[in-house]
UniProtKB/TrEMBL annotation:
NCBIfam families per UniProt: mevDPdecarb (TIGR01240)
EC number: 4.1.1.33
Protein name as catalogued: diphosphomevalonate decarboxylase
Pfam families, sorted: MDD_C, MVD-like_N
Lipid biosynthesis as UniProt keyword: yes
InterPro entries linked: GHMP_kinase_C_sf, GHMP_knse_ATP-bd_CS, Mev_decarb, Mev_diP_decarb, MVD-like_N, Mvd1_C, Ribosomal_Su5_D2-typ_SF, Ribsml_uS5_D2-typ_fold_subgr
Gene: mvaD
Top EC category: lyase
Length: 345
């Protein structure tokens, strides 16, 4: 995939046309962003803190193309008249995990590219691959959208700072803004700032991959429904404010037990807004509950590990880097796992 002529840095030249290649890391929150106070200005209902993970990432290539390139790609894709409409009126080409995306999905990413280009006459082809399951609650939108933002920064010759890129990225996907900082990042709902949080703890995660399928309700739609209808939502926002302050304190004090305990509590509170939405729903399945119990039992037997879940059934286990190998050995007996240290950015 990366066999084209490479001219150093992040920039490549293909037949004299500039193209760029970037990598960006996913992040998993230990204090969750769940709800938008103002979707247009991208002000979240809750401040959040996350770990940026070295072994969960997206690789994205981007280049300029013209109308003819789009026509050829679409014609190649259209095998039956039926699906012709799906690819109509596309102004860019967007390949996600090797598949050409339809107009609806492409338009979403085109709007993100609009944040960098003068107008739509500057057409682009984006080819992006996630090394983790997409849209399964494993934070593919955080690495995916931050990668697009990084690629735009390169392709359009901008030289925004990490903070500036994070601020742009939140409009692509809120969680992606935190992927510009690491090992630990925060997004403050009141100041709007996105920044690195200092701690001497060397944190790590083990993802228990229980179901790789695309979720039925996206994070965006899920949190919107909860913010609008959950009877617990106000309480969630209030408690989350306290969680954010305490988590920063525990991280500064390097108190892993408190960090872990609060990580679990905060995740369960987020999921309570989902259970109390109207109509109520869940991202969990039987295996999710089993895995949560498994983690709790290990802890009762002296292991230092805590669970957290996002908008999907998969369980992530928070642990210390020093215990990663031992714990991975235990979990891999029972589960398909992704083991990851954090990354310093
Ligand atoms: P997740 O839990 O995986 O973050 P979300 O519902 O938040 O799930 O977001 C999934 C969406 O993010 C996908 O449907 C797609 O639109 C977008 N996405 C995922 N990976 C990429 C990528 N590599 N490049 C661009 N967009 C991506
Ligand atoms: C549960 O960033 O995926 O993962 O901003 O609408 O794109 P949009 O949603 P997204 O939401 C992430 C929610 C979460 C918790 C978190 O990462 O903080
Ligand atoms: Co997401």
């Amino acid at each position: 995939m990366w066999s084209r002529e490479y001219l150093g840095g992040e920039n490549l030249i293909k037949k004299g046309v500039k193209m760029v290649k970037v990598k960006s890391y996913a992040n998993i929150a230990i204090v969750k962003y769940w709800g938008k106070k103002d979707a247009e200005k991208m002000i979240p209902s809750t401040s959040s803190i996350s770990l940026t993970l070295n072994d969960m990432f997206t690789e994205t290539e981007m280049e300029f193309i013209n109308d003819e390139d789009i026509k050829i790609a679409v014609e190649k894709e259209i095998k039956s008249e039926n699906c012709k409409d799906k690819f109509g009126d596309m102004t860019d080409l967007f390949y996600l995990n090797g598949e050409l995306q339809d107009s609806v999905h492409t338009e979403k990413i085109s709007k993100v590219v609009d944040l960098f280009r003068k107008n739509r006459s500057q057409k682009v082809k984006i080819s992006t691959t996630n090394n983790m399951p997409t849209a399964a609650g494993l934070s593919s939108s955080s690495s995916g959208l931050s990668a697009v933002i990084k690629a735009c920064n390169e392709l359009f010759g901008k030289s925004y700072t990490q903070s500036e890129l994070a601020q742009i990225s939140k409009f692509g996907s809120g969680s992606s803004s935190r992927s510009f900082f690491g090992p630990v990042a925060a997004w403050d709902k009141d100041t709007g700032e996105i920044y690195e949080v200092k701690t001497d703890l060397r944190l790590a995660m083990i993802v228990l991959v229980l179901n790789e399928n695309k979720k039925e309700i996206s994070s965006r739609n899920g949190m919107e429904l909860c913010a609008k209808t959950s009877t617990y939502f106000d309480e969630w926002v209030k408690q989350s404010e306290i969680d954010f302050i305490n988590m920063k304190k525990y991280l500064a004090e390097n108190d892993f037990e408190k960090v872990g305990t609060l990580t679990e509590e905060n995740a369960l509170r987020m999921h309570k807004t989902i259970e109390t939405a109207n109509p109520p729903f869940t991202y969990f399945n039987e295996k999710t509950y089993e895995a949560m119990d498994f983690v709790k039992n290990l802890r009762n037997n002296g292991e230092k590990c805590y669970f957290t879940m996002d908008a999907g059934p998969n369980v992530k286990v928070l642990c210390l880097e020093e215990d990663l190998e031992k714990l991975a050995g235990i979990f891999e007996e029972k589960y398909k796992i992704i083991v990851s240290k954090t990354v310093k950015l």
